[in-house]
Specification:
The complex is a heterodimer of chains A (333) and B (241). With 333 residues, chain A is of the alpha/beta class. In chain A, 35% of the residues lie in helices and 26% in strands. Chain A has two domains: 233 residues, Rossmann fold (3-Layer(aba) Sandwich), CATH 3.40.50; 66 residues, Alpha-Beta Plaits, CATH 3.30.70. In chain A, helix 6 links the parallel strand 7 and strand 8. Chain B has one domain. In chain B, helix 4 runs parallel beside helix 8 and helix 8 runs antiparallel to helix 9. The chains are: A alpha/beta (333), B mainly alpha (241).
Chain lengths: 333, 241
Amino acid sequence: MDDDGVVSDPDEMPSSAGDNGVPALSVAHLSKRFGDRIAFDDVSFEVGRGEVFGFLGPNGAGKTTTVRTLGTLIAPTSGSATVAGIPLAPENGVEIRRRISIMPESPGLYLRLSVIENLECFADLYEVPDSNDRIVRALRAVNLADRAHDACGTLSKGLRQRVALARALLSDPKVLFLDEPTSGLDPVATRDVHELIDELRQRGVTIFLTTHRLEEAERLCDRVAILNTTLRTIGRPDELRDQLFARTLAVRTLVALPEPGGVFAGLPAVDGWRQDGSATYVLTVSDTTVAAPAVTRALVAAGADVLSISESHHSLEDVYLELIDEDEEAGRR
Amino acid sequence: MRVSTRRVRAIFRKELREYRRNRQIVVSMAVLPLIFSVQPFIQIFALPASGAGALLHVHSLVYMLGIPAIVPATVAAYAVAGERAQGTLEPVLTTPIRREELLLGKALAALVPTLAVSYGVFGVFVAAIELFAQPPVASAVLGGPELLAQLFFTPLVAAWSIWLSIAISARSSDPRVAAQLSVIASVPPIVVTTVIAVGGIHVTLGLAIGLAAALLLLDGLGWRIVSVTFDRERLVTGTRS
């Protein structure tokens, strides 16, 4: 793996396979081109069974095309993959689609049909046994049992999204692809979807979550990948933060220190410092649990009036923006 | 290749439910047959008993084979383009359904109402002739060969029109354009049946059997050809794989 955490050799892919060692998704050097246009290029990763895997990236980064490729809707230009343990190949399309479920960004419901008629159709397309029972369970899972006989055309966007989610759950999929599942939902509906994803995770369903909502990915995903035509990085959200951003302590004093170098130099786990404003100092540290007490003692010894010592936090959004900004700058050069 | 009857039935049932609730389709199915009923209706009922001889070389009933040619065109044209337009095609294509199953379900859903409408209108027409036309006119019109031709050619002509319309629908992004092109594509069989109806082509038993065999072959080929050209990637992304 290179410094960005991007996999360059499938043998070195971050191992996230489940207990039985067989990953739910394994992608190696997968690429898709439409003529001269590259949708995504040389993408490699693995997703373990029962893992919630976030797939992030700006518009046009190739996220939906990746999902469609893994869902056998479109053929890759090069590379290989296994989906739910089955090699991605045209002759395996039916078998793969039997084991997965894809909820596209747009619910795509038959608006003249009722909720239950929509689900009946898809239960038959997946040839699920005990379809009535499954439909009832899926409707209960998304809290829509009381709207089962309503025409989908009469439902709000949020309710339609929930029907689409129920439809995706019907076949009890091994891998569930969710493309922007909370797009356009109000906060309550979004919370419901998040809770449902948590429940599915507990049931061991592998979830491949494509989203623009970085706080959603941070909250729900075991690992995330950031795609911008090529895979920019992959890992746990906290790992990515550590990879991209140095850990820092922000120190605020009542008045500026007369000799800050004398106070901060040589302290354990403090790698460097800079002044940020008149009486604020940002210290680069290797271990906050070692550095913070040492800094506190040093400041007290120097007679400084300390207002605060805090660890600065970088969010997944910072990681995302850092990487995408890098790409934009590289594109301009 | 194993065709799943459950999946075919799922598409068939879903399509029928949608058609039933689509006013535009219901109106088209009700109005179009009238166009092909008016001319023979006037021709037969305006004729006095002494004019029955004029019908000897005219096959008025064959004119009604235009119904199975044009009715499914409006329905089948919606099959793929309509689903693309309302965003329902992609979720269906992500299920384990094979393209042959999808197309078969859609074709059957267009065929069944077409047969019901065609045979229904024809039955009413024949009953009206029996009851109200001059007896010599009725016996001149209701010949055995004409009735058999109607019985056998209706599904053959309908199936041909359906495959052509689905093929057009799969290549169109706008369902209205698909419907217009499908209606245009259904004109040649209408022209042929009209020419036969007015006595322009003398139909022998051999020619009828030959035409039926050719249509049967075209219908079988239609399913295969449309299935082969039904490309998931092009339908989802608009570009060919």
